[in-house]
Amino acid sequence: MLSLVLIGCTWGGTSLLLSVLSHEAKICLETILIFFCLAGTTLIKEVEKVFDALDISLEKGRRQVARIVGRDTTELSEQEVKKAALETLSENLSDGVIAPLFWLMLLGVPGMMAYKMINTLDSMIGYRTVRYKDFGCVAARIDDAANWLPARLTACLMLMGSLFLSTSFPLSKTSLAGRFRQMCYFSHAHLSPNSGWPEAALACLLGCRFGGGHSYHGEWIEKPYIGEHERPLHRDDMKAAVRLNRLAEAMMLVAVMAVTMAGMLYAKC
User: Fold this and answer.
1) Percent of the chain with pLDDT over 90
2) DSSP conformation letters of 182-218
3) How far apart are CA 153 and CA 155, in angstroms?
4) How many CA atoms lie within 13 Å of 227's alpha carbon, on the beta-carbon side?
5) Which terminus of the chain has a lower count of CB atoms within 10 Å, N or C?
6) Does residue 73 sit in helix, strand or coil?
7) Which molecular function terms from Gene Ontology are attached (predicted)?
């Protein structure tokens, strides 16, 4: 219930604040809020730092990846650290960029702010551990609903983007239809109804395997594998994933701008 109150207050408070501002101040505030709600660049930099830290030592890599993942990292191997970073990168593309832009496009800045509150609550308390499973259940279910369509849209944007970055994915020689079938198959292997889509898309495009069990807050959570090929991950894989993220973000921004301009033209008619 507290989750619903916080989400409602975020929506209502943002709507009320924007309604009392002048046109110029409203545009300025909306621009600032949109800027701070999009987390694509920040996460990309953090993932790059993980790979940089691993070049120094495994321990530094573990500490760095702990900044962006919820799992316990003290016992992770070098490959598990890299997997965790790339899994988070793909998931964040949906949670941190595509989904906020999706709700901005549908419901404006108040809708985007409400979504960010939903996502924040899920990140804080939406775990499947004994400690959080009851209290965080509502937040997790709302987050699942809010991300259902954006997660699938993200995966499709990644597949479309891969057509323009074919040299970055040398291990993925299948057709677009083949990639789509692989993605759909492995997306259902994830415990989350949404996170599996961008993770499956990246795993299929890189020709690698994500997932597997990990410890969260001291409790072991078993997870299925996503992807067919267990292989070492390298810096080139990270660079390819970053390029794909950037392209997917750009494609979504173009879509949002097109819808916004169409709405403005329609309003003038």
Assistant:
1) 55
2) HHHHHHTTSSSTTTHHHHHHHHHHHT--EE--EEETT
3) 5
4) 22
5) C
6) coil
7) ABC-type vitamin B12 transporter activity; threonine-phosphate decarboxylase activity
